[in-house]
Design goal:
The chain is of the alpha/beta class and 292 residues long. The chain contains nine helices and eight strands. The protein has helices spanning 2-22, 52-60, 84-101, 124-138, 158-174, 182-185, 216-225, 229-232, 251-266; strands spanning 37-42, 64-71, 109-114, 142-146, 196-200, 209-212, 269-270, 273-282. Strands 1, 2, 3, 4, 5, 6, 7 and 8 form an eight-stranded mixed sheet that branches. Strand 7 and strand 8 (273-282) form a beta hairpin. Helix 2 (52-60) packs across helix 7 (216-225). The longest helix has 21 residues, at 2-22. The protein is globular. The protein starts with a helix and ends in a 10-residue tail after the last strand. It binds zinc ion (ZN). The site of zinc ion has 4 residues, from loops. Keywords: Signal. Residues 1-24 form the signal peptide. Pfam families: PIG-L.
């Protein structure tokens, strides 16, 4: 009987511990962060859009915010006349205009130039080396990235899947000075450990941090997401013009586009408030996927 009690107690302790690990919140609420360096890593122009409200808040509160995207987004279109080069330029313009809406300057935007849809097949060591170099240069305190999964592997679509692992694998490599050592011995950089993570696009039950973006940050997010005209309007099928913005669309199309963008921002709610949900993790990169 005593053994049974011990097992029950132990099991309960494990459940409580697992629950508390899953519910780990930032010690200081995200809305009060300041003086931090933040880096978001994604695959495509607009992958950062689900965090625009939080990034807007962080920037306004005196944090340095960078966005690094690995591909140019040069493939996602159904326009039969579109070319990769033209689309890459369009996506860069849209991304920069979006970042401008949330106060992030062009010099804080990095694009590694890989082809959209092909990140899975890019040389993994080369991409990791380039990411590590940026981590060691920028020295982020907090990394925003696709959630690779927590106690399981999440099946994200191809580039997102690769981006989730690359972002985390590079974070792990960055802390060890004997990995990509030339960056240290020749380029004058230092090994850098990132200890805080904000993962997006994970499963809902793993989210533990919701940032209230209601008000001006939601409004800026709406302005920012509305810059991605080539992805969410009729321009997806027929991009007719240059540097298109919402006002360039035909009235009916513009209405439908803005409605969709508004819903993306304001309908993502918790307790009636516009939020962005994340899985926050603090610790060494090795523990990012451990459910223990
Ligand atoms: Zn994407």
């Amino acid at each position: 009987m005593e053994n049974v009690n011990k097992i029950v107690t132990l099991t309960l302790l494990m459940v409580v511990f697992a629950a508390s690990a899953a519910l780990a919140q930032p010690e200081t609420p995200v809305s009060e962060w300041s003086g931090k360096t933040i880096l978001l890593v994604g695959a495509h122009p607009d992958d950062d859009s689900r965090s625009y409200g939080t990034l807007s808040m962080l920037r306004e509160n005196g944090n340095e915010v960078y966005v690094l995207l690995m591909t140019t987004g040069n493939v996602g279109t159904k326009d039969p006349d579109m070319t990769r080069d033209r689309l890459a330029k369009i996506r860069r313009g849209e991304e920069l205009r979006a970042l401008n809406e949330i106060g992030i300057p062009e010099e804080n935007y990095i694009n590694l130039g890989y082809t959209d849809g092909m990140l899975e097949f890019a040389d993994k060591e080369e991409v990791a080396r380039r990411l590590v170099k940026w981590y060691r240069k920028i020295k982020p305190d907090v990394l925003f990235a696709f959630d690779p999964g927590y106690g399981y592997q999440k099946w994200l679509k191809t580039d997102h899947r690769r981006a989730s692992y690359l972002a985390v694998d590079a974070a792990r490599a960055s802390e060890w000075r004997l990995i990509f050592p030339a960056q240290i011995t020749q380029d004058g950089l230092e090994a850098h450990l990132i200890e805080e993570y904000m993962f997006f696009s994970g499963v809902e039950e793993d989210q533990n941090t919701w940032v209230d973006i209601s008000g001006k940050h939601a409004d800026r997010k709406f302005e920012a997401v509305s810059m991605h005209v080539s992805q969410f309007s009729s321009a997806w099928n027929d991009y007719n013009g240059t540097d298109l913005e919402a006002e360039d669309l035909e009235p009916e199309d513009r209405k439908a586009f803005l409605k969709k963008m508004r819903s993306r921002v304001y309908d993502n709610q918790k307790d009636g408030t516009a939020v962005e949900g994340f899985r926050y993790y603090k610790g060494i990169p090795d523990g990012i996927g451990h459910r223990d």
